[in-house]
Amino acid sequence: IILDMQKFSLFNNDLRKIRLFAKLTSELYPERCIGVAVNADVVTTIMWNLFAPLLDQRTRDGVAIFRPGRFEGWLQNTIGLDVCPPSLGGTLSEELPPMS
């Protein structure tokens, strides 16, 4: 799961949808679920750093949080840029619509 947080705001997103999506994904594909937040703001990064130690190691290992411009190498090595949209530095020819 790649969550581009560039235009993310608590005011313009339905957190219930995000929670439901995360819950279903982790229940249906627990071994394959990796959560990646790219273009995360300072608040998100700080919150993750505060709460991550409270989570078990397996959960922490399945989450990566990146500030703007610091995720391309991780995406290339972990997922592959051929399956990432151009907005994330990838070469996928078809942009996927925003989740709404």
Q: Can you summarize this structure?
A:
The protein has helices at residues 15-28, 42-51, 57-61, 72-78; strands spanning 2-4, 35-38, 63-65.
Helix and strand topology:
Layout: E1 2-4, H1 15-28, E2 35-38, H2 42-51, H3 57-61, E3 63-65, H4 72-78
Parallel strand pairs: 1-2, 2-3
Describe this protein's structure:
- The chain has 100 residues and is of the alpha/beta class.
- It has one domain (2-88): CRAL-TRIO lipid binding domain (Phosphatidylinositol Transfer Protein Sec14p), CATH 3.40.525.
- The protein contains 4 helices and 3 strands; from the N terminus they run βαβααβα.
- It has a 3-stranded parallel beta sheet.
- β1 (2-4), α1 (15-28) and β2 form a beta-alpha-beta unit.
- The relative contact order is 0.15.
- The model has no long low-confidence stretch (mean pLDDT 75).
- This is CRAL-TRIO domain-containing protein.
- Pfam families: CRAL_TRIO.
- InterPro entries: CRAL-TRIO_dom (IPR001251), CRAL-TRIO_dom_sf (IPR036865).
- Residues 1-96 form the CRAL-TRIO domain.
C-alpha Rg, in Å?
Answer: 14 Å
End-to-end Cα distance, whole Å, is 15 Å
Record field, number of beta strands: 3
DSSP strand content: 5-15%
CATH class: Alpha Beta
Low-confidence stretches are none
Supply the number of structural domains: 1
Spell out the CATH superfamily: CRAL-TRIO lipid binding domain
- What is the number of helical segments per DSSP (H or I, 4+ residues)? 4
Global morphology: globular
Mean pLDDT: 75
CATH topology: Phosphatidylinositol Transfer Protein Sec14p
Largest sheet geometry: 3 strands, parallel
> How are the strands of the biggest sheet laid out side by side?
1-2-3
Going by helix content, strand content and strand pairing, the class is alpha/beta
- Helix coverage percent: 25-40%
